[in-house]
Amino acid sequence: MPDRPKDLPDSPAVVPWYHWVWVIPAAMILRLWLATLRVHSNVKSIDDRAGPVVILLWHDKLFTSSLIANHHFSRPITALISTSKDGAWLVAFFRVMGLTAVRGSSNKRGAAALIALTRTMRRGNHTGITPDGPKGPAYKFKTGAIALARLTHSPFVVLGIQYRHCWRLRSWDRFALPMPFSRVDVQLIQEPTPGPDEADEAIAQRLERSLNETSGVGPN
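^ thats the sequence. predicted structure below, dont judge the formating
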C-alpha cells in the first residue's frame, strides 16, 4: 500500500520502493495491451510549436492517455494527479510510460499544484488535466484548468476519447478499460486561451460541452 510521510499528513501518497518489483512488469503488460488497440484520430498530431497547451480529458479515459499523448504531441507532458493512494499508483505507471506528474487537486495542495504546473508550462511542457477529477462528479468541469490557462496565457486542447468496446469498473467515474484489439476513436479540438472578459463559469460550460460531445457522453 502506498505510504504517506507520518510527519506530513497532507503530503501526497507515494508507492514504496519495494512495490516497483511488480509495478514495472505490470506496466510492460500495459504497454502490450495498449499496442493492440486500433486508434483512429481526426488529426495526426497537434502543432504545438507555438507553445504549451492545457490538455483536457475526462477521468474515466485516463487508461489510454499516455498512448494518445505520445502519438499526438511533440512536447513533454506533465499530468496533474491527485494526492490519494490511487493517484500514487497512477504516478508510478505514468513514470514508466514516460509522463511526469504534479500532485494536487481542488481539495488538497491545489495552490501548490497550480504553482508547480505554471512553472513546468513556462519551461515548455504541456499539462494534462482531468477537470472532473479526482473524485467527481463525473463529467462535471471544475475551473482549476481555466485558472492555469489564464496564468500561463495558454490555449486548451480538448481530448475526446471513445471506446468501441470496453469494461467499466465500479468506481465513481466508472473507469473504462478498452478491450484488447478494439477500436479507439480520438478527437482533438483546439480551444482558444480564456479571454479576459469571459467568465470562468461560461468557459467551463463551453469546454464541458465540447468534452462530452467528443467523448460520446450523453445529456446528464
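The two ends are 35 Å apart (CA to CA).
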